[in-house]
Hints:
Radius of gyration of chain B: 24 Å
Oligomer: heterodimer
Number of helices of chain B: 11
Number of domains of chain B: 2
CATH topology of the largest domain in chain B: Outer Surface Protein A, domain 3
CATH class of the largest domain in chain B: Alpha Beta
Structural class of chain A: alpha/beta
CATH architecture of the largest domain in chain B: Alpha-Beta Complex
Shape of chain A: globular
Distance between the termini of chain B: 62 Å
Number of strands of chain B: 6
Shape of chain B: elongated
Strand order of the largest sheet of chain A: 1-2-3-4-7-9-10-13
Amino acid sequence: MMILSSLHPASQAQAPGLPRRAGLGLKHEHLSEVLETTPDIGFFEVHAENYMVAGGPFHHYLGLIRAQYPLSLHGVGLSIGGEGPLDPAHLARLATLIERYQPQSFSEHLAWSSHGPVFLHDLLPLAYDAATLKRVCEHVDQVQSALKRPMLLENPSTYLQFQRSTLDETDFISEIVRRTGCGLLLDVNNVYVSCINHQREPLAYIDALPLHAVGEIHLAGFAEDTDSLGERLLIDDHGAPIDNAVWQLYESVLTRTGPVATLIERDNQVPAFSVLQAEARHADWHLSQVSP
Amino acid sequence: MSLHADFAAALLAPEATCPDGLFSRNGADPASRFAVYRNNVHSALINALATAYPVTLQLVGDRFFRAMAGLYLQSCPPTSPLMCEYGSTLADFIQGFEPAASVPYLADMARLERLRVCAYHAADHAPLAPQALLQALQGQADLGALRVQLHPSVTTLASAYALVAMWAAHQAEDGVGTLDPWHAQSALVLRQGLEVKVFAIDLGSQAFIDRLGHGLPLQRAVECALEANAEFDLHQCLTLLISHQAIIHLHLDQKVSP
């Protein structure tokens, strides 16, 4: 047993969180089908900010879903990498949501979104240096103590790098996990997108991460563009089926981590529920191929 | 300026610029990559406005709306992490937006659509059952002193244009047809259960509902309604409110009149 747990320490970060199954993002257009047919899906994930409203259909439906499925609450609005302090009102809203829905997991991004009074509604890149590291760790600590639970931090997809950076992204992430005890939401699509964009070997990137802390995996599709040199520039748009290269990388990740709760993300050009369900089944099959 | 201040300013700038201190590993011009962030920010915000203001968009067409939204986001960038709050000042922006002056009811349409979003997300509250309501009214010696508490989603809007008729025409499959926008109409917006509804009401009903919302007793609200419209029909207005479950509580005035 000693050997098993040291082989797959991910199980420690995950328990007693999400089931080690495939989950889907909850889309408004699929609500009635999900509620009528209660498909066999491991869990549903929602963006926390969409539910920071007083009442109405959003809460009504999330309550019905939560009664039947495990839930992952995924934040897009904390701006953990922001230069300014975290917004206490936003933290309080998160705490209220967590109290109400008791999600199995809460995750946020290694990114910034707000500066001064302006909130940009995008996940923007950080310079990886000692000052940023200190600030991000303080913010993660603050989130974990305000929410009274560990959080998962998601690795970003990026298109640019900062001259000011002195640390590798993977070292930066490892250090946050080490200092704060937070878990890692390993977005395999983000790994692939960033590695292509920054000419890095995806598996080497994965191996440089603290895989023992992975509590959830994200899979998604990307869009392709070209930069000024006409070279491949991948854009994390959650608007396409998961690419074969990302499925392959996922398989390699699972052999290293063992089975981990895996979300299929689709936020644009949302297809019929059955299409996403087929991707979830495929992820479930991969999960069943590795031993816990 | 700080790193993020530069980055944020360049994201929102009217012309594409690229902040200093960025590079691409392959040596590509960082501006070609910064454009991805800029495009993400602009398209997310413009799409959010297009979703929240569907009829406003239809009135001016997709191209005009998106160009206008692009200017709006430069003058009023979002300040909240809640996307549903973005665009709450769009109607005021449209009011002062010269190129839209040829569609004089455009700002009011945006106001109406904003109220619909607010009603959609308004707090939940169980309505007073019609039977309980009737009993309360019948057992009341001093009806005029009664205060009527409305559902949190209830709002009204006065317009110089046939706003509700235009909005309703844009919900229909067969389109707008011939519609005279040039008569004043007030709107009542509320959420019944999970569904947001829009009704055309007269100025008297609007005054009545607004005064109830401000906590005035029934008699005072009726007086105000009759001032606004001598033909105000209390029975009809109460029927509208009751049948759409807009009344959540009745209580007697606690204050003693002098």
